[in-house]
Amino acid sequence: MSSNSTHYVAAAQTETVVVDQLHLSDKKSNLWLDAWRDLRRRPTFWVSVVLCVFIIVMAVVPNLFTSVGPSGAACDLANSNADASAGHPLGYNFLGCDIWSRLVHGTRTSVLVGVMATAISTVIGVIMGALAGFYGGFLDSLLSRVGDVFFTIPYIIAAVVVMSVLADYRNEFVLALAIGGFSWASTARIARAEVLRVKQSDYVTASISIGLSRFRTMLTHVLPNAMAPVIVVTTLSLGTAIVAESTLSFLGVGLGGATVSWGADISQAQTQIRSAPLALFWPSLALTVTVLAFITLGELLRDAVDPKSRAQR
Amino acid sequence: MAYYILRRILQVIPVFLGATLLIYFMVFGLPGDPIASLFGDKQPPQAVIDAIREQYRLNDPFIVQYANYLAGIFRFDFGTTFSGQSVNDVLARTVPVTMRLAVMSVAIAFVLALIIGALSAIWKGSIFDNGALVTALIFIAIPIFVLCFLAQYFLGVQLGWFRPTVGGQNDWGDLWLPAIVLGLSIYASSMRLTRASMIETLGQDWVRTAYSKGLSRRRVIPVHVLRNSMIPMVTDTATQFGVLMVGATVTEGIFNVPGVGNTLFRAITSRETPTIVSFVTIFVVIYVLVNLVVDLLYGLLDPRIRYVK
Q: I want to staple A70 with a disulfide (CB 3.0 to 4.6 A). Which of A105, A164, A179, B203 is the partner?
């Protein structure tokens, strides 16, 4: 259809009257383009994007932000709880380590574990949800019950059990597996619901009727169209996975030994809450800002993609 | 309704079996040795290891062990803690404290969520609404232990309004600080749910009917809108309950509230795996039961639920 077409209706007499005028835009329109047009006008979106990028850069190249080591030889007990000085903007913690350096290096642990845990939970969740939703029947009942089982155990509690049993095997991947392996059930539910919806579409019927196998149809037509809510949940669960990592480290069942983690720093500083509250404050702030940045991004994305939640703004 | 109840109860059985099997597998099926982890870096003498393996029947085949564990749950026998107390005795001592804390925090969260959520929905788009949404987002992002320390430092240490830790003196009035923190941690999502649900209800035809037949706003909002908006909040309670259990573990640990969560917290930090398993099992049993009750309640409140599916 050409743009800005005008519809005429022949009147009963002789003249023609314009009854409506369509202004069709030539601009392409799909879910993500619409979302982008909505998002780019929002200042909060840009603030959280800049923060997220900053946090990721800090996680990848911590040495760009500090030249002081976070632990080991860089710490000097003579500096225990010392105030800020030149080159050490946030002062020192109880063990005489530079707080700013520990914040910068702790970012890596949080982001690395968060990203891996989210990837694990998304992959498991999408596979389980898509199979259950697309094939239905017995497979659906089976996978949905398995999902219910995982949904029943709060994933932080499950991760606590796994990490305390696997005390000898603590590393970033095991921690991510403990978090991601138990938090996929909600992703699976969302993916299943969306696959069920997309499955009804005419193009899916068309794809099967022209001879594509059901599995190929699911991969090439159903899944790509069912990804929007999953991507939103993924962004949100990155934030919650970071909280989970810090909670486990706080409880002492996260990464042990020399790994720098905000949660472990908070746990260590809690005994000094009266004498050195700042050593407790800075890692708490870093953690909260990071989680807030990812969660805000996820929520804005959800509002932009889901017209129903947009209507409620 | 009887059919709905029966079906719902039957659905619980596989979930319960699966969840307990999963916990049991995590502890005794994974490569780590639960006994060795009790001793940290030191290796205990072989005789001690053997005695403990015998005590926890770790020499039986996995499925026999699981059957024993399951039989224990049905006899309400959750084993003994590492220090030798029976878990039931510990529960008898700690459950009342945790119940007080839970009731207070849920009450705080729900009252706040209802009032602020309802006002937010009525004044949608206003400064109040935006402020409430931003605050809710911050409360969602802030990890519970950070919230605990903020409250402990500012309200407890600096302002001196509350005692920073609870300890032995733990009656209703002594639990305000942990209850506020725990309440705020579940407040945010309840408030957003109330708001969303209110906005949806406000747009319904029957609300317009109520207005057009001359009812005042004072009557329509509390009686027609609020009551109908509360149904989703009932199911939300079930989901929130998981958050509440993790939150209670951390909060009770930090404020030294001698409740169930605190016992789990101490067990985790001192790595007493068998005690952790007992308490996690109890948590899961409670969670399954709460979900069942909430679902039944949901069916009672909203007749449509009973017939679909």
A: A105
